[in-house]
Amino acid sequence: MRLSYYFLPTLKENPSEAQIISHRLMLRTGMIFQASAGIYAWLPLGTRVLRKIEQIVREEQDRTGAQEILMPTIQSAELWRESGRYDAYGLEMLRITDRHDREMLYSPTAEELVTDIARKHIKSYRDLPRMMYQIQWKFRDEIRPRFGVMRGREFLMKDCYSFDLNYEGALVSYRKMLEAYIKTFSRMGLTAIPVKADSGAIGGDLSQEFQVLASTGESLVFYDQALDSIVKNKGEVDVNRLMSLYAAEEGLHDPQKCPVPEDQLKTARGIEVGHIFYFATKYSDAFNACVTGKDGETIPLHMGSYGIGVSRLVGALIEANHDEAGIIWPESVAPFIVGLLNLKPGDNKCDTLCEEIYHKFLNQGIEVLYDDRNERPGAKFANMDLIGIPWQIRVGTRTMETGQIEMKCRRSGEIQELSFESALTSLK
Ligand code: ATP
Ligand code: MG
Ligand code: MG
Ligand code: MG
Fold first, then answer.
1. How is residue 161 annotated by DSSP?
2. How far, in Å, is the centroid of ligand 1 from the Cα of 272?
3. Are strands 338-342 and 368-371 parallel, antiparallel or unpaired?
């Protein structure tokens, strides 16, 4: 992509309405546009990042055997009356009336609809287990939408649902998701700690939130420091060990009962980026979603649900990856892998060389943003630093003299001089 043609409405000044760094940077880099309170349009740069995150989430969901579906955002109130949540959900639910005066709503989550699908089509123990997920927009009329996409009203969520014959089966599904979540966040270069969360009226231990540690997080978490190394580990996930280590949200943490010695207990603020939850037969009972067992008996489905805040992750990633100059994208979610900077635009030789390099990147399938604008080098450096492209390739007078380009690593700040071919090899 040529920057001269790219829609990148960056801002010079810090927007005054943004309280935290990720919100400021998302507005300054033109990733999002506020349409109304807590509702955003995603502009080209933001959309690329959102899609990258979504794709990592999708791949790790697929790996568990979960199957992607797509459910409607607008749903019938009837269905939600069956579970009792139409009345219980309260003001966070956006309610809509259609032209026939039928009550509808914008789905804040989708247990009801997926259970309706299951009760009509999952009839025998032989149809189990199953997992289905979607990556779909949700709406919650948050009382205080804030921090940009971190607490929006409309937001993109991955929600997966598991169906099993019994508790043991449901536990297997739950553990698969736990493992998938660790892999998902680790691929994004995030440290997300699974902490025990409130499992509400159902009770039991099987509810964990994934918290990305950041000083601006809204939750307070207490956890065994041994968890740090496990969630950072890129290899196989030791689910048993993971589930045996102590980690709890403020509300569930009891210093009297905490088994972790004080010097091993860490306290930190966290951003909730995911939540996994076993809720037994809560919805299948309400919906009469049952299968026939081996001996002809009727068995209610054991279900779980598993959410990831896909759009919230964009903010969380920036909270975890920035410096004074701007964003520092991890390569796995970067909107472009390399930024190509023409430092002498208008100079025939430099333009030709840059065009050549640009096309080589395109041919190799390396995502490149080419700054071909008629701007000073300083402005170009600052802009690339701000939008956080992991690698910068700088082509200028020295390149024409020595044949070497400058390659800057955004994260370390290190600048190397090397031939274009070596740079290309290192990026592949
Ligand atoms: P929170 O405690 O932040 O209000 P939640 O517990 O209500 O979140 P869940 O119902 O567990 O949210 O939804 C699954 C995931 O969706 C959350 O872990 C979070 O990452 C994301 N999410 C929830 N609400 C929002 C929101 N208003 N804006 C963006 N993402 C959200
Ligand atoms: Mg909430
Ligand atoms: Mg929560
Ligand atoms: Mg939650």
1. E
2. 7
3. parallel
User: How many angstroms does the Cα of residue 217 sit away from the middle of ligand 4?
Assistant: 14
Q: What are phi and psi of 152, to 5 degrees?
A: -90, 180
| Closest C-alpha residue for ligand 1 atom 31 | 309
| Structure tokens, 354 | 């840059």
Write the pLDDT tens digit of every residue in 209-234: 999 998 889 999 999 999 988 888 77
Ligand 1, atom nearest to 108 Cα: 10
Strands 207-213 and 247-249: unpaired
The burial of 262, by beta-carbon neighbours within 10 Å (0-12 exposed, 13-18 middle, 19 or more buried), is given as exposed
Whether residue 237 contacts residue 179, with contact meaning beta carbons closer than 8 Å, is answered with yes
Per residue in 17-66, pLDDT tens? Answer: 899 999 999 999 999 999 999 999 999 999 999 999 999 999 999 999 99
Ordered alpha helix ranges (H), 277-346: 282-287, 310-320
Ligand 1, atom 2: nearest CA belongs to which residue?
272
Element (H, E) at 40: strand 39-42
CB 241 within 8 A of CB 187: no
For the segment 251-298, what is each residue's pLDDT rounded down to a tens digit? 899 999 999 999 999 999 999 999 999 999 999 999 999 999 999 999
Measured between alpha carbons, how far is 412 from 390 in angstroms, rounded to an integer? 10
Is residue 41 within 8 A of residue 51, CB to CB? The reply is no
In the predicted structure, residue 205 carries a pLDDT above the cut 80: no
Output the CA–CA distances (angstroms, integers) from residue 284 to 221, 234, 290, 294, in the order listed: 32, 37, 7, 19
| Ligand in closest contact with the CA of 271 | 1
- Report yes or no for ipTM above 0.95: yes
Dist. CA 21–CA 326, nearest whole Å: 9
Q: Two tokens at 185?
A: 């966040």
DSSP state of 47: H
pTM over 0.90: yes
- Residue closest via CA to ligand 1's atom 19 equals 309
Instruction: Indicate which ligand has the atom closest to the C-alpha of 141.
Output: 1
User: Would the CB of 138 count as within 6 Å of ligand 1?
Assistant: no
Asked if residue 152 has its Cβ within 6 Å of ligand 1, the reply is: yes
